[in-house]
Records
---
Amino acid sequence: MSTTTPIRPGLGSGLRLARAEVVITRRLLNEMWKVTRWLWPAGVLVAVIVGIAISSVSPITQSIWENAGQWPRWWLFAMAIALVATHLPVAVLHGVTRRAAIRAVTLSGVLVSMAWAAFMVCGHVVEQFIYDRLGWPDVLDTPHLFRDGYDVLPMFAEYTLIFLAYVISGGLIGGFYYRFGWFRGTLLIPGGLLPAVAIEGLLSTGWYGAGLQQGLSVSRPSAPVLVVASIVVLSLAWQVLYLVLRDVQIANKK
Amino acid sequence: MTGFQVQAVDLSINYGNTVAVDRIGFTLEPGKIHGLLGRNGSGKTTLLSVLAGLRRPTTGRVLVDGVDPFENARVMAGTCLIRESGDLIATDRVGRVLDFAAALRPDWDADFAAQLIARFGLSLDKKASALSRGQRSALGVVLGLAARSPLTMLDEVYLGMDAPTRYAFYDELLADYVEHPRTIILSSHLIDEIERLFEGVLVLHEGRVLVNDDADAMRGRGASVTGPADVVDQFVATLIVDGVRALGAQRLGSTKQVSIFGDVDSDTRLQARALGLEIGSMPLQDLFVHLTDSGREILR
């Protein structure tokens, strides 16, 4: 047996994925898909029912799908919390380094966020089409990077950034609990929520994002500035997540 | 494949103010089955977790195949620790657990895994959360053996297994080890059942190394001296002068039996026989009990 392979600092190999990363990424995506394939039709069904219910008592004057963008945030957030505690120890016990596991989780988080963003974009496009055919005004309730339901690329960017922020927030809170235990983990929840709050504030999306920006009396920068700023914030948050998990002790389950 | 060598150098592991492992040093030769013995709380599981890269030592270091295993991709991929706690994802079915291991373990043997699954009577469709304690242990054994890792560590994996299943595990382990030699560390409290597998023995006591020796040599160092009490006492007193340690004594009427630990050569045995004393072998389990009973004194 040779004695080679010094420990690489940081993530080292960038996007070059080894076998372990591919295996874990596929597993995480598979795990997500098992639930998502039911959540997507359920989400559409609920939006349709809400639309029918509202239209039966008063005319529809604004986007229903816009509000449907709230629950995916929290679902992704909850999934990220759970995945840290359930999958990281199992991956390490199967001989995977934490670095490789974090790389796989990062890739999975980006891909899942993009998939959910695509789902949201499809919903907006379909909603805009229906509203146009019925002559309803498709008014958006809060500011966005996109102007209407057909403004696909900014919409995709906005939802991807928001969902990724919630994934990182969930990962941070899961990481805080796993690393520091329930008491200190609970105290650190506000810190874990920071990425999500920061991106909501930056993009001023959602009622609290819009409220935050109005409360601070900040004028909204241009879309490219917001996207770049969001990427910087998410990169910093990801660095914190990496620091929390890179040498975390894998405890023995009782 | 000959397996990974394992070394600890001045290794300490603390949990807060609690010292779990206290400045120990040892070397485990590659390609052997080592028994890791010790009472509850002696530091066995903590030591294994450091060897598997699950945590860093507090001070000192461990070397697996010559390097620090923590976050070393090559060594971690070649190390398999199966803990008594299982470490399965509760919603996974047994088949999915095996698929995941097969995808990640470089030396995984799917045919051997299937053979073990059949031998232990496990169903591939059963969810991990629905497995009994013994079935979870059996699945752990399948994961540990079929991985064929150069360093395989099984930490009290027999929990909940009935006797026939435990013996099936011992048989499978030995047969597979003969065909695919590697470094195996077995931590167990059922010493009398499993000692026949050991080629080396590492005994921990209160976080310190009590014994690290070849298993046969260790067995040879434990003996019982039986005979008339006064003759036994005189004989043992001469042995103690030569460095042999008396571990314990039992008395029945005028007959006394003293358990001793140390090198007893053939001359000494002849001398005992001439005095009308009987020198018997001591099972490893009895030796372990005596050693850990008087462990603090021995360490001192």
Note: Chain B touches chain A at residues 2-5, 30, 45, 49, 52-56, 65-68, 70-81, 83, 85-90, 100-101, 103-105, 149-150 (CB under 8 Å).
---
Amino acid sequence: MSAPLRSSLRPEPAEIVEKRPLGPALHAYRLRLLDPEARRRFDFRPGQFNMVYAPGVGEVAISVSSDPEEETLEHTIRIVGRTTGAIERFGVGDVLGLRGPYGSAWPLEEARGYDLLVATGGLGCAPVTGAIDYVFRRRGAYGHVAIVHGVKEPADLIHRERFEGWRREPDTEVWLTSDRAGPTWRDRTGVVTELFERVSLVPERSFAFLCGPEVMMRRAIALLRQRGLPGSRIYLSLERNMKCAVALCGRCQLGPSFVCRDGPIFPLERISRSFFTRGL
Amino acid sequence: MGLVEDAPRELGGPPTPDAAPLLLPRDALQRLVDLLRQDGWRVLGPVPRDGAVVLDEIERVEELPLGLREVQEAGRYRLEPSGRQAFFDVVNGPGSLKPLVYAPREPLLQIELDAFEEAPRGGAFRARELVPEAPRLAVLGVRACDLAALAVQDRIFLEDREPDAAYAARRRGLLLVGVSCTRAAPTCFCVSFDSGPGVTRGHDLALTELAEGFVARAGSAAGESLLGRLAPDPAPAALLASEEAAIQACAASQRRSLAVEGLPERLWQSLEHPRWRDVGARCLSCGNCTMVCPTCFCHDVWDEPALEGGSLRVRAWDSCFDRDHAQVRGLNHRPTVQDRYRQWLTHKLAGWVEQYGTSGCVGCGRCITWCPVGIDLTEEVAALEVPPP
């Protein structure tokens, strides 16, 4: 926190060393910064993001989904617009730009020794998958882990095998639900927040990490508070329009916060007023 | 190139209450402009144009709005004869110092691209920071509120972060000749923010225009050197007394005000006040207030093809009143005009204080004058302070 806020918008070239399809219009890109000095300097914590640059086209804010101790870093990128559409044309050996890491991280140090409840909704939720992997790589450092994930319909559940893998971890429960069930759906039916009444939660020794549509997170917060979890241990990941990522273009503001600098991961206490005000 | 050429330029001089006040006769103003021009400065001053006063290059003091004053009210601006032979009776126009330091549109990076098809490295690029060759600009007639606004912008672009390279280059090229206000427009409320009407900080040179001539004070080494070359006499005590009386009368004449103490918390408490809907119905969401505001800094950033090949990363002023300002993919976080007005006002007067330790408002009143429907933030804040029924 002591280093001054960066101002430069200069991207660093990074080579794609691996590209894996994860689902429809969704790929994982493993990247290696070309400049050894930039590679040495790059140090992130799960939850932080990079501005990923399609050269000549534009930038998009994407969270880092790999582990901080890995040599290379990974971004999971879904095609949603012009820039991500351009990125899709890039393959192994091609060069993208990166600048970052920016923003705040999940409180993975503070949460050591605690139980974790991770609630996600919608497609993927890359900002939190890196944190889940981080925890399982250091399994002994954390208590019980509950993962709750909701989708609109079964087809939205991309890489089910990842959830199945987490389900096999010790002292872990994984709950999947779909608003609408299909013939092959073998998990629960209903909105994700209905699971909050069933999931294990010892409020005195738990952290909750939330990531997904804001309406889902608002409902989740109410239910978690009902069950006695204090706001200081509820963290959420927010998405806002980010053009600069250096707290200067002004677009990502939420009340007095710049989401790119003070977020994207917030303790609920810090934004409880702003987050519950519509249109702020 | 003259004496001030190589003097290190300190950004925004410290307050200089002790600078000896000197008396410059009225004809010394032209000599000041001549000296600055000889020293290689482009001299900008307020000039009447198309019915308003704008900042533009001057050579002769007769180009200043001599004998004019302006009528300002919510949504209204007119120049009219003042009946006085004063250079600086017009308080301000739509333009502040902002575009001189934070360019309305500026390339920040030059990006050279290899042809995408070139194996094995498609997309290879080299990005280079572009730093503008900032002109040396001496600005004549800068008001205290605009100097205060520049200090706010310095805070945003230079302090508490790695300095923004383009802003820093332009900022270093500025020499500021302030003018204390002896007349307030009806839209002025600098007293609320203690940012005027007298020039006390941030200037290289400060002038107060009186019938007998100008009281002049240096605010920096550059200003001191300039004053020395104009060889003025010390200002007599009687003149200083009438200067103080004129500035105090100007302060006392201000009709608008904001209760600044505790305002951020009161605004945060009013986020659901029905007045937002009311002002949202009047606001055209045109963004004029943000364009004339001397501190608003929101912008857009994009890459565009450069004529000479490759790509330029461009930064350009943008407004929180733009419909897509808070749009991310399919979701607009501030979909209505009342959301966007609330964002502007709460950022300016409340969020800013948490972000930068200072309000984003200096009381210049431009957003009131240049609002096409005459929305007055002091009136809106007063209405928000009244608990809803």
Note: Residues 22-104+126-252 of chain B form one domain.
